[in-house]
Write a structure and sequence with these properties.
Strand order of the largest sheet of chain A: 2-1-3-4
Oligomer: heterodimer
Distance between the termini of chain B: 26 Å
Strand content of chain B: 5-15%
Order of helices and strands of chain A: EEHEEH
Largest sheet of chain A: 4 strands, antiparallel
Strand order of the largest sheet of chain B: 2-1-3-5-4
Largest sheet of chain B: 5 strands, mixed
Order of helices and strands of chain B: HHHEEHEEEHHEEEEHHHHH
Number of strands of chain A: 4
Radius of gyration of chain B: 23 Å
Radius of gyration of chain A: 13 Å
Shape of chain A: globular
Strand content of chain A: 25-35%
Largest interface: A-B, 24 and 32 residues
Number of helices of chain A: 2
Distance between the termini of chain A: 22 Å
Structural class of chain A: alpha+beta
């Protein structure tokens, strides 16, 4: 599928506890529907990364590293801008399922 | 003397500041001296004018109503979703709901509001009677509590590592204090000012816990833990942070290892994560507060807490304050409020964590 990433690595940091949490997903050999879901979530995360940091305190920040065709892109996404669809994706990757 | 200062300040009001500043760098010693005096007088005049404006503004807020402050809590249920605030479940004065998260949030908001009013005379977060709004059951398995800029959000925890975040009253005090900081010094949420912002929330969160405990806890009797009770029994840890012994709150692979907080500048962590490690480096000013509170004795809110609170409100505290700036202001505030002995205790506390008071 064109435009679908090969690998996505996520770090969630900040929060009241300040304890980072990491997860990654390899999509190169994944089923078509998984690649499509990741592609859709990434579109929303790119938009969210453009949002101003906001004035929340103890909120999470997500660092999303995308590898696609040998290129690497890194997004920094404030929690307040994360949509429900993107959050479901982030949680699934962080839980490793 | 007062007359001379006033005249210097008047002169400065018509001479543009950049010209006076240039004169201060002049080769003529006399010109330099005069300009420096003018700059100093101008700075203190601006300070005095600002203080007068603030005092007048406070009277304006208080005068028309003349009613005693009353708290107004509104607790909502986000029903595991992201839509805020959610369904109203308990408004001020209403009976307990039977939902522990909602009732703990209601009680914790009340405890924090009471402490700020009874101890520091502060009328809610903004000192102007702001309503206290909290949403519980925010998202699903949400391992967090946050101040989103206008209200509090509490997660239920995942149940494996974290319990619900309303369990610890100091967490509620911590979040509301972010609102107090936003309304006062508004410390920038990055690097050292960000760690100070976090520390101030831990300080007053901990004070709320000590204040509502029965019997109330003196500085030497308190546990100084932040978020005790938030971990499930599966975790090797007592709390999220320890102000008494930063770096010792937990040690568990489920949490990525050991509590990373330093208690001294030697261990200051430089990182891009978490806004420059604001929840890590807060260990340093946290420990300084603990040491000051124990040295000053009695209840932490009486002297150490009063010094920190007045420092937070001090117009001289800049949003981009570094640890040494904050420390120096606490020492000056200690002198002003409680005299030389208190100043010594505060200066020693900062020295013990590697921060020199100027």
């Amino acid at each position: 599928m064109p435009g679908a990433p090969d690998r996505i690595e996520i770090v969630r940091h900040g929060g009241f506890a300040g304890i980072p949490r990491r997860g990654a997903v390899d999509l190169a050999g994944a089923a078509e529907h998984e690649r499509a879901a990741a592609h859709a979530a990434l579109g929303e995360l790119r938009r969210a990364a453009a949002a101003p940091p906001g004035d929340a305190r103890d909120a999470f920040t997500y660092t999303v590293a995308v590898t696609e065709g040998g290129r690497r892109e890194e997004l920094t996404v404030p929690e307040h801008a994360v949509t429900d669809t993107a959050r479901t994706f982030l949680d699934r990757v962080l839980q490793g399922s | 003397m007062a007359h001379d200062c006033a005249r210097a300040a008047c002169r400065c009001a018509v001479v543009p500041p950049h010209i006076v500043e240039a004169l201060a760098r002049s080769e003529s010693a006399a010109q330099r001296e005069a300009a420096i005096v003018t700059l100093a007088a101008d700075a203190s005049l601006r300070q005095a004018r600002l203080m007068a404006q603030l005092a007048a503004a406070r009277q304006d807020v208080g005068a028309p109503t003349a009613e005693p402050p009353h708290k107004n809590r509104q607790v909502y249920d986000a029903q595991s979703g992201s839509t805020l605030p959610g369904v109203p479940v308990r408004a001020e004065g209403e009976a307990a709901t039977g939902d522990p998260a909602a009732d703990e949030a209601y009680d914790g908001l009340g405890a924090t509001w009471d402490m700020y009013l009874e101890v520091y005379g502060r009328n809610s977060i903004d000192d102007a009677g702001m309503d206290l709004i909290a949403s519980v059951h925010y998202l699903r398995d949400y391992d967090n509590a946050q101040w989103n800029g206008s209200q509090m959000l509490f997660g239920d925890g995942d149940g494996t590592v974290f319990n619900r975040f309303t369990l610890a009253v100091d967490v509620i005090g911590h979040e509301l204090t972010h609102g107090v900081t936003a309304a006062t010094a508004n410390l920038t949420y990055q690097d050292q000012p960000g760690a100070l912002n976090e520390s101030v929330s831990d300080v007053f969160g901990s004070i709320v816990k000590q204040y509502v405990a029965r019997p109330q806890q003196s500085a030497d009797a308190a546990d100084w833990l932040i978020g005790a009770g938030l971990f499930t029994p599966s975790v090797n840890g007592v709390a999220l942070r320890s102000m008494k012994a930063p770096g010792t709150a937990y040690d568990d692979p489920q949490l990525g290892g050991k509590d990373p907080q330093p208690s001294h500048m030697d261990g200051y962590v430089t990182t891009a994560s978490d806004n420059g490690g604001v929840h890590i480096n807060s260990g340093i000013p946290n420990h300084a507060f603990y040491l000051a509170a124990v040295a000053l004795g009695g209840f932490a809110w009486e002297r150490a807490g009063r010094i920190w609170y007045e420092t937070l409100r001090d117009p001289q505290l800049r949003a981009d304050a570094q640890f040494a700036d904050f420390a120096s202001l606490t020492a000056a505030t200690a002198t002003r409020l409680f005299g030389a002995e208190a100043e010594r205790a505060v200066t020693d506390a900062w020295a013990a964590v590697g921060v020199a008071v100027r």
